[in-house]
Amino acid sequence: MSISAHDIYADPAFTMATEQFRVIADYLDIDANMRARMVYPKRAMAVTLPIHRDDGRIEVFNGYRVQHHLALGPTKGGVRFHPGVTLGEVAALSMWMSWKCALTGLPYGGAKGGVTVDPRTLSLRELEALSRRYMQEMIPFVGPHTDIIGPDMGTNEQVMAWFMDTYSVYKGYAVPEIVTGKPVAVGGTAGRREATGRGVVYLIERALDILKMQPSQCTAVIQGFGNVGAVTAQGLAYKSGMKVIGLSDETGAFHRAAGIDIDLAEEYVKVHGSLAGFTEADPISPDELLTLRCDVLVPAAIEAVITGQNAGRLQCRILAEAANGPTTPEADVILAERWNEIFMIPDILCNAGGVIVSYFEWVQGIQSFFWNETEVTDRLFRTLEQAFSTMTRRARGAKISHRMAAMAIGVERVLAAKKSRGLFP
Ligand code: NAD
Predict the structure, then answer these.
(1) Of the candidates 60, 101, 190, 215, which lies 20 to 30 Å from 379 by C-alpha distance?
(2) Is 227 in the pocket of ligand 1 (CB under 6 A)?
(3) Ligand 1 atom at minimal distance to the Cα of residue 358
(4) Pairwise CA distance, residues 79 & 181, whole Å
(5) CA 245 to CA 218: how far, in whole Å?
(6) How far apart are the first and last CA of the chain?
(7) In the chain, what percentage of residues exceed pLDDT 90?
(8) What residue owns the CA closest to ligand 1's atom 30?
(9) CB of 156 closer than 6 A to ligand 1?
(10) Is 180 near ligand 1, meaning CB less than 6 Å away?
């Protein structure tokens, strides 16, 4: 199945997600009749979002929401504010969410949303206006039993609170379960902000366990220092006891063989807004960062950073894909050949902690019955453990890569649901 340039979803990320699906569909021998039904989103919505800028101009932004499949329940997925957002990228992210939810046993189809904007160029007032306008436009399209929104790159708890408020004002009563990742003060769950990074750390420790490696003797390199990257860095440095020797964000990459002080880096970002000008480590090129010799490499930023060009040069023992889609299909072929050298934790498992705890938040919101952080984290680890052991068993048994195994489990579950429900009329 190939994506033509005229396809509304035509985009490198959608082509990548489609190619990944094709590999799995061939492996599982999925009927040609089912393939397009599995790949193409069920529904997509594109909106224009005019807002007043602080200087008096009116500026219009493009926003999207894509619901990938509805076979297992409502759809679920984050909203990304990033200058690179396109409809096709959002569609790709929604497809990955579908396989992720199915792999971890959540009763959701995948969704994703986005606005093509660099949120750092907006004042707080402008960000609020854009967030509220996005939610306003989405009201006919989303709902706590149709499509539940959450955070992603460029959005945070505050944006979720504005989404929740806008939707609730329209309804006339509080509807906390329309969004996840909101502040605890408005019905968010304990442990959501940390969930994705905590899950990444848990899975890295499981991999180290299998490889019989001691965390305290390991080094880590992390690309991206936002929600996921920073919580992962904190966990690896201060919980697992690893030395984080490489760190980056979109403004620069840094190396320090003796280990970077993560608290100091966080403090620096709080004050300066990014790692630009950080002097506690040596600046290096972004490509150098990914190919540093280390035990654990964690891409926690954007898509397609591990490519056919650098996959052969990675020098890590574990590749933990905290970002969505960090590895291209060309790189995957190379990494599959290097399975004995590099233990891969594929994205749909590695960063699933976020959607798992979002699911807990949704369940708590619907029941108006809240759990404490220990309950949330225990359940998170149990859910991840189940998915991790199912994936590793399948990979070992069938002699396939971890990505193939994880995707095969997710795709099979969606396929089974679609087949059971049939095609109407
Ligand atoms: P964020 O906006 O909080 O942080 C993103 C970080 O990546 C920032 O430090 C940014 O400077 C950096 N970055 C952006 N472009 C970069 C580049 N080219 N090179 C190096 N660094 C770059 O976003 P986040 O929520 O941490 O999300 C990061 C990734 O994790 C995304 O792929 C997202 O889809 C995925 N993810 C996030 C969650 C979640 O709960 N937040 C859940 C699952 C998956």
Answers:
(1) 215
(2) yes
(3) 40
(4) 11
(5) 10
(6) 25
(7) 96
(8) 323
(9) no
(10) no
Q: Which residue has the tokens 């620069």?
A: 252
Burial class (CB in 10 A: 0-12, 13-18, 19+), 107: middle
Distance, in Å, from the CA atom of 279 to the CA atom of 295, rounded to the nearest integer, reads: 24
Residue nearest atom 16 of ligand 1, based on CA coordinates: 250
Q: Reply yes or no on whether the pLDDT at 425 is more than 90.
A: no
Q: Note the helical H segments in 283-372.
A: 286-290, 329-337, 347-350, 353-367
Q: What atom in ligand 1 is closest to the CA of residue 154? A: 2
Best residue among 103, 152, 357, 376 to mutate for probing ligand 1's pocket (most ligand atoms within 8 Å of CB) is 152
Q: Is 196 close to ligand 1, i.e. is its CB under 6 Å away?
A: yes
Query: From the CB of 361, is ligand 1 less than 6 Å away?
Result: no
CATH topology of domain 193-351: Rossmann fold (3.40.50)
Q: Mutate which of 81, 227, 269 to test ligand 1's pocket (most atoms within 8 Å of Cβ)? A: 227
**Cut 0.85: pTM above it:** yes
How far apart, in whole angstroms, are the C-alpha atoms of residue 362 and residue 108?
11
DSSP β-ladder status, 219-223 and 147-151: unpaired
Give Cα separations from 131 to 57, 79, 112, 136 (angstroms).
18, 10, 15, 9
For residue 199 and ligand 1, the question of a CB distance below 6 A is answered with no
Same fold yes or no, 12-179 and 193-351: yes
What average pLDDT does this structure show over 191-200?
Answer: 95
Which structure tokens are listed for 9? Answer: 């979803």
Could you tell me whether strands 252-255 and 243-249 are parallel, antiparallel, or unpaired per DSSP bridges? antiparallel
CATH superfamily of 12-179: Leucine Dehydrogenase, chain A, domain 1 (3.40.50.10860)
Inform me whether the pLDDT recorded for 1 exceeds 80: no
Residue 104 has a pLDDT of 98
Phi, psi of 51 (to 5 degrees): -135, 155
Domains in the chain: boundaries:
12-179, 193-351
11 lines ligand 1 (CB under 6 A): no
Q: Is 334 exposed, middle or buried (0-12, 13-18, 19+ CB in 10 A)?
A: buried
| Protein residue closest via CA to atom 42 of ligand 1 | 354
Residue-level pLDDT at 47: 98
Rounded CA separation 252/108 (Å):
37
Quote the ligand 1 centre to 372 CA distance (angstroms). 27
Distance 83 CA to ligand 1 centre (A): 13
Q: DSSP E strands: which ranges in 282-349?
A: 282-284, 296-299, 318-320, 343-345
Residues serving a catalytic function are: 112
